[in-house]
Amino acid sequence: MSRVLIIEDEPLLADNIREKLETVGHEVHVAHTCGEAMKCNARVSPEVIILDLRLPDGDGLEILPKLKEETSSTNVIVVTAHGNERIAVEAMKAGAFEYLTKPVRLDELSLVVTRAVDHGRLSNNLDFLRTQEEAKSGLSRIIGESKGVRDMKKAIRRLGKTDALRLPNPPTVLVTGETGTGKDLVARAIHYHGPRRDKPFIHVNCTAVPESLFESELFGHLRGAFTSASHAKRGLFEVAEGGTIFLDEIGHLQPDMQAKLLHAIENREIRPVGGTQMRSINVHIIAATNRDLREAVEANEFRRDLYHRIRVVEIALPPLRERADDLPSLVSHFLKMHAQRFGVRPKEITDDALSLMASHAWPGNIRELSHLIENCLLQLEEPVIDASNLPLIVDRPNHEVRIESPEGLVVHLDFDGVGPTLEEVERTILLAAYRYTGHNMTGAARLLGITREAFRYRLKRSAEKAR
Length: 467
Fold this sequence. Notes:
The protein is of the alpha/beta class. The protein folds into four domains: 3-131, Rossmann fold; 137-316, P-loop containing nucleotide triphosphate hydrolases (Rossmann fold), CATH 3.40.50; 320-389, Helicase, Ruva Protein, domain 3 (Orthogonal Bundle), CATH 1.10.8; 400-466, Arc Repressor Mutant, subunit A (Orthogonal Bundle), CATH 1.10.10. The protein is 46% helix and 16% strand. The protein contains 18 helices and 20 strands. The protein has helices spanning 11-23, 34-44, 60-70, 85-93, 106-136, 147-161, 183-192, 214-219, 236-239, 255-267, 293-298, 304-310, 327-342, 351-359, 365-379, 422-436, 441-448, 452-466; strands at residues 3-7, 27-31, 48-52, 54-55, 58-59, 75-80, 96-101, 173-176, 201-205, 220-221, 233-234, 244-248, 269-270, 279-280, 284-289, 313-316, 348-349, 384-385, 400-404, 410-414. Helix 17 (441-448) crosses helix 18 (452-466). 28% of the residues are buried.
């Protein structure tokens, strides 16, 4: 059931409309003048208002904005016997949901009221979800006060205050960091602390989009553009219009996809698959990667021009192993969050457990920590988490390492005393593979599981460092 306010000075028509709407389940209130309408609107907070423009004490167009101001989510259906195109345009500009002329067909009016109710409730739901999303995506969700986290938050606040993000061609942001460091959370914080917060935030996992569907997903397609295109589809760039598109794991895009994305970013336009006309876009582009893009550029695995285009502003996320001071607050946060999520009592954690955590390398970073806390809450019966309860493997010193490849290549490392540097180990392996394959660069690259260009680049770099 919904609340409807009828503002109509003809008593017979008002009664007829009320009876019709009450038969389909609406709660109906009636006002005959502007003064009555304003009082009733404040008291009832209707979801839909049916407004006559000619009233004894004023013009309905004049009170329409005031009615909307009282309850912004209310949809107003304007009804008048003196309709013309100019009045219709003015009514829609003033915020009317629909415009009907007398004599009104009650069945048609009932359908319009139902549509207005559905539209209003959908808008309220979207506003609620947007508010919830914003609350979950703010800077307060980035836990920690270590220097790296403080610098990161400062950069996000500085971005949010700049008018540059309002421009049709805002500066692109590149978020870098290891897997599990929270790149998605940072991208959302940038969006929801910026001037585009009221517009869409669209997350695109670049590794999950097949190359064959890349254009269709991001740029859209026309009906009949390919065999299964039974209808036209808007691409994600258009869905994000006015807001932000977050291109996660951009470092793993294939070369053809990189070229098409570069054109869209540089020219701020896209062309749907099967189309001939370009469509302009107004979106803020945030990209993220856990890959070293500079190394990928030197190895000809990532376009240099695209790298510089997406790296106008770079925000680097520190790994968890460099944020030992943040561990207590992060652990406390996840204990409360997951306990509430699973409906269990929060557990305490001992200093020994925290000390063990501080010595762990955390290759999965914050995501790994979150999963560890989940495991402890679900698996442990004790109310306190101790070091003995943690399924962590802390790296211990190892003097000697032996690495053997399937092809028979064996590398011995002895860390007793002063161990070799990473560059020395890499150069040894590169040269060994190169000699093993008879100085065949392609074969050596295949042996090590990298591209020929990557092998050439690494070999050249190691030779330069060895001089």
